[in-house]
Amino acid sequence: xxxxxxxxxxxxxxxxxxxxxxxxxxISRTRADIVIANGENAAEGRGIRPQDVSALFGAGVQxxxxxxxxxxxxEILPLLESEDRLLRPENYPAGVAGKGHCVLSVxxxxxxxxxxxxxxxxxxxxxxxxVGRESVARLAQQxxxxxxxxxxxxxxxxxxxxxxxxxRCALVFGTHTHVQTADERILSGGTGFITDIGMTGPAESIxxxxxxxxxxxxxxxxxxxxxxxxxxxxxxxxxxxLDTDRRVATSITRIREASLV
Length: 261
Prior knowledge:
The protein is of the alpha/beta class. The protein contains 6 helices and 13 strands. The chain has one domain (2-258): Metallo-dependent phosphatases (Purple Acid Phosphatase, chain A, domain 2, 4-Layer Sandwich).
């Protein structure tokens, strides 16, 4: 049995502070064997920089996934090429920087993390269903326990992919919307699923961003620039127990707790 601790989208300085101050204790309490975090919003709410990657790894994160905002900070492109544990969605077209999966040995067990991006209300990149099925098949040949971060907008697209991969991977967890859902479950084939694991960022905010600006955008319909709300954060994510013999999930527990800073 392995325990995977997975943190939802880390948003700006408040989210980073929450990870730096609290991740060590959270790992101890949950007895996590592997820590994964979506970091695409770590830099001012849009993108991630090399120094953010280094700091998150230093705090205890072992694999960083991402999504459509990974391209916002151009200085990250060289690191996408050189750092295997920093992922961008696998289903971007061939030739773009980086890759969308990695495999780590955890207590002697190969654990694969696959990053995919949805297409509903997002750029029309390669089909996540086809790329996901093909990628999972290749990773399964390595005997890996496979965890999938599906960075997508639409709940129905997330659920559809989970059922499409049911029995082929251990877990499909949704990211991107920054709102934790209460639908965690184990599908009939043994694949764990939750629509969205939530956000690690300012608790009192509009999905991590300024409350005042969010209200003004709604009132005026103007494309006002969003900035991260600099308030105390909350840590959201999941703890998943994995049966390494059957390569399935046996339990999912939602995590949502206030940060100390």
